Amino acid sequence: MTRLDLLRREFLEKCIVRGGLVAGASMSSNSLLAYWQHAEAAARKPTAPEVLGPFFKKGAPNSKDMRIAGEPGMTLRVSGKIIDVRGNAVPGARVDMWHADHKGIYDVHGYRYRTKLAIDSGTAYETLTIMPGHYPDRPAQHIHYLITAPGCKPLVTQLYFATDPFFEGDPDKNFGRRGVVSNRECVRPVTLLDESAKPHAAVTFDLILERA
Ligand SMILES: [Fe+2]
């Protein structure tokens, strides 16, 4: 048993003695410690933060489909959970997403390829858009995120794509090239689907928030 375990046991025993923790009559401090450890192991890491970048714009519409009729680009479905580090729902989340068009150009005058999803209930989000293009300053395809939710710390992050030529087929090795991507876990696998007449790609990117 490690020193940390001993400290936890002492803490638990003090809690029981002081009435701060009510356990069943048959529940020993050993059982409580095991339960505690299990709960801690089940906790998730918060989604890694990334920089906001210069192209954020307030006031985007709540759109589950950012695609623009007639514009080229591979259709991309982006979805994921919105939960806290204990796996609990975080109702009332607002998810700003914005990215460049297929040529790598941001719309700074309007709201093309921008949304602010309102997730009033549930634990998931989903939107359709296109695969972003590359642009010289940040030559890895990416989607920016700003997530806020009552009772949680705001999260600014970015989603990248493991299929991006920038990673040369090996994001584990190359995610840090040129300092563009800070966190390997933000580079997500891409699944190519053919569920309809038009093939599209799908990516899951979970948004795991820390409580404030
Ligand atoms: Fe960007």
Main attributes of the structure:
binds fe (ii) ion; Protocatechuate 3,4-Dioxygenase, subunit A; five-stranded mixed sheet; 2 domains; 212 residues; alpha/beta
Notes on the structure:
- There is one protein chain.
- The protein is of the alpha/beta class.
- 16% of the residues lie in helices and 26% in strands.
- It has helices spanning 3-17, 29-42, 171-174; strands spanning 75-84, 93-98, 114-119, 124-130, 142-148, 155-161, 187-188, 191-193, 200-204, 207-209.
- Helix 1 crosses helix 2.
- The structure holds fe (ii) ion (FE2).
Number of helices: 3
What general form does the structure show?
Answer: globular
CATH fold type of the largest domain? Protocatechuate 3,4-Dioxygenase, subunit A
Number of spatially distinct domains: 2
Q: How much of the polypeptide forms β-strand, as a percent range?
A: 25-35%
Radius of gyration, in angstroms, nearest whole number: 21 Å
List low-pLDDT spans.
Answer: none
The first-level CATH class name of the largest domain:
Mainly Beta
